[in-house]
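User: I'm putting together notes for a lab meeting next week and I want to include a structural view of one of the chains we've been expressing. I don't have a solved structure, so I'd like a prediction I can at least talk through. The sequence is below, exactly as it appears in our construct file.
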Amino acid sequence: MSLCLVSTMEVASAQMGRFPRPRTAPSGLGHPRSGTTAAGGVRSAGNPDKLFCGQTLEEGSNFTALIPEADSILHTLNPDPLILVYVPSLPEQSFGTASLTIANEEGDLLGQANLTIPTNGGLIAFSLPSELLPLEEQNFYQWNLQVACNQRVSLDDPSVSGWISYQAAPLEEETPDLKMADHLQHIDGLSEAGYWLDAVVETASLLDMADSETRDTELVPRLEALLEQENLDLLTRYFLD
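Assistant: Thanks for the context. Below is the predicted structure for the 241-residue chain, given as structure tokens.
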């Protein structure tokens, strides 16, 4: 899996077992407030010919948040989840810095952090500022990631944003040495229950652990289906490179 972890926060895996129904978002939250564009930032892979940091992207995808298309809300069973973003290559003058901010439903700033991202771009994963973790159950948090096209982040630099909400799963007895079939069933259950982010992260984490046959016949098709479901299939190759 070509996924760059840009935070040192340890991330818990989604719990095995039954899944609660994701909480319905309050009226007015989600689309179109989140997943908006700013100087080249887009929710989905979009038009690869758009500018990014003044560069014309002739190949590949634009700055992209991996979030559901309909409402941009990531429902998760993890109190310290990963968020996935694709970033194109940054210009030579960029120091590879990014600013992450988190707000509540009312728009109040809850936390912020500076991240260092690879200047050659790629698929990155980051966790939320440590002072917010673990997330409070059934609250909605809006995150915004803005990358610096030059030495420092400015208001004109590209950004992507979305919402995330944590919901605790019922506790289940731990089963040691789970078989791959159990993980595959768990991924399918996460997807069917509406925990798209958890399904993608767990599928991606298993790509390097599985044998080549299971990877090609079970995991890759699941990953492709999950990304295609949200019109993010152009990003599949960045998980597999």
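A couple of points you could mention at the meeting. Residues 7-12, 32-41 have pLDDT under 50 and may be disordered. The first strand starts at residue 3 and ends at 5.

User: Perfect, that's what I needed.
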